[in-house]
């Protein structure tokens, strides 16, 4: 019984964890790419890594928090721009190939010895080096508060302040996405997703619209990367291909092309994922080592992603008609 | 009526997926049960860092800086979690991956009346070193934080100690000396790297030809092809080291099992989805899921370490001024023969010509009496078989591999296929040779770290897309 409540509380904690918020924001960006515009970005982790490095390095070099925040956003925008120029005029899968490659290359570059002076090489950047300006912003008094079974310190890495800030950013992003996708601009994006040529025939500059969507989603991704590293440290190997794939699972689970899909998907995904892992660790401890339980959980995520796409491509909240588009 | 049938077929598909997963799990479990292998996944409480092992060590000290036994610390991160109990001596744990880990002190195990100075520590594990996170536990108020440290270990041995795991996985093997020297290289070095480049290109071509064929016949850029390559390396490792097969038999087993996975995937997954008319966009996401599932399944079998396929030391052989291991030369020979066979198959046999016809225009091919469904099944089978062979030969040539092998290769395969022209088998061959040469020769540039040589692949990819999106051998069509 004790064991059970411990597992449940751990899973409940995931609902509001900063990492869950980071995934939600990354999925919001991806949703802008894939759900609304039909762009296949399989390198969201690359955008996140750019944001994480942008924020951390700027802070270490002495930038105040909001400047570092802007630099993180600019890093994502820059990457989107560079990747968009050669690919957005081509068929959809070229963007997929270029983004997945770019994400890996950024990770290699981050962990290589060439720029280790700034990026810390393979060991990355310790959290204490860049968390100061963020934690100083906290208006909360020191102490601890428990809400229900969840108890965290007010200030610090794994704190209420980190949670409030992260979910605040997510909330603002949801609001912005709501505003822009119900505008004429958002309708053009959906038009591009459904039939690019028809939109072109209406005299719209499809390339420019796609680029704007890619840049906006990239900014969301890079800010998500910043949120991701705020409670921990910048470790390039933490932000590889698996991260991208998890973000995809989160987005498709909640529902692509929906407003709350990414947020719901992220909360649900990490609740179940934690429940699954801790449950299996407790249940299978005699059968296999803890490490294999993690791998088994990852394997199940992969299978779950396949099943979602095969049986319910619109996810929980989505509309199947909106997900019937194809690469061209 | 149709609804009933749909439900029935949906149920069948669910069943198929479940069966596929179970089969995968049973296979992994069976492999785990094999002798001498389980030790790699065990968590020992004494870990010696070396070129392929990263250790994390929690240190619990009392006020006199003496070790405090009996305190539980949870090490978690990178999808790994382990609880260790401090003892009078040092305790360290081998972690599966480099990266950051969180050490969390269990306050329930701290002696009464004593206070830890922190509840958790962040450490970063690196190959060849022990990452230590210290907690000090004192009576009363908490002292100043001491933080965590990473110290290089003296026991780190030569190979791979300073290189990262990816570089080791595909590159720094027993033969190729890819260390940089200052200043521009001599001709002999350039020639040597040229030889390595041809080797890499040929082995890469085996995998990318399959990728290109799949793209040509189905329109899918399959992201799981990288894992199919790793699967080949894994099967080579398992069949030689665990089952004790001779190398030639291991090659056959690898090809057959890998081809069987492709055939099986087409039967339970791609075939039914094709008949349902699922958009290619969704199929590509399915390959992402498959890639993730395979990647974790592979990790379950071999863990996070790099594995040697051939346990004997490589025997260097010099041919035409290029020194590569004997195994590498043999691998190149095998690759050449197989590529020759593929070329013959595609141009001279009925099925091969039908494959190219389907690739060219599926509707027209179907109209001439070709069954595209059958062709696609053959393509999946052949492509995954070739990917497996490529993975095994790469692992043999480079000496060792890790589960990340395919991840890196996927990127280079895409670059090669795009360069050659997507969907053209011979373009993929040409593109692979170019990519192989560029990747190996880029290490000659002074000051270029070997881990960044794969970046040249991306550079080529972007340049090709900017200036010749249809690739070297592709046909110019208006795209967008």
Automatic annotation (TrEMBL), chain A:
Q: Which InterPro entries does the record cross-reference, listed alphabetically? A: ABC_transp_permease, LivM-like
Which species is the source of this protein?
A: Promicromonospora umidemergens
TM ranges are 36-58, 65-85, 160-180, 213-233, 245-276, 296-313
The record's keywords, sorted A to Z, are: Cell membrane, Membrane, Transmembrane, Transmembrane helix
Please give the PANTHER family that the UniProt record associates with this protein.
HIGH-AFFINITY BRANCHED-CHAIN AMINO ACID TRANSPORT PROTEIN BRAE (PTHR30482:SF10), HIGH-AFFINITY BRANCHED-CHAIN AMINO ACID TRANSPORT SYSTEM PERMEASE (PTHR30482)
Can you tell me which residues the record assigns to a coiled coil?
none
UniProt keyword Transmembrane helix present: yes
**Compartment(s):** Cell membrane
Q: How does it sit in the membrane?
A: Multi-pass membrane protein
State what protein this is by name: Branched-chain amino acid ABC transporter permease
Automatic annotation (TrEMBL), chain B:
Question: Per UniProt, which keywords does this protein have?
Answer: Amino-acid transport, Cell inner membrane, Cell membrane, Membrane, Signal, Transmembrane, Transmembrane helix, Transport
Carries keyword Endoplasmic reticulum? Answer: no
Pfam families noted in UniProt: BPD_transp_2
Q: Quick one: where is this thing mainly located?
A: membrane
The membrane-topology field of this record reads: Multi-pass membrane protein
Q: Which residues fall in a compositionally biased region of kind Acidic residues?
A: 154-168
- Entries under InterPro entries matching the protein: ABC_transp_permease (IPR001851), BCAA_transport_permease (IPR052157)
Give the residue spans that cross the bilayer.
197-217, 251-271, 283-302, 322-346, 378-401, 407-439, 451-468
Q: Which residues constitute the signal peptide according to the record?
A: 1-33
Q: Where in the cell is it found?
A: Cell membrane
Look up the domain of life of the source.
Bacteria
Q: Region (Disordered): which ranges? A: 140-180
Question: What protein family is recorded?
Answer: Belongs to the binding-protein-dependent transport system permease family. LivHM subfamily.
**Name of this protein:** Amino acid/amide ABC transporter membrane protein 1 (HAAT family)
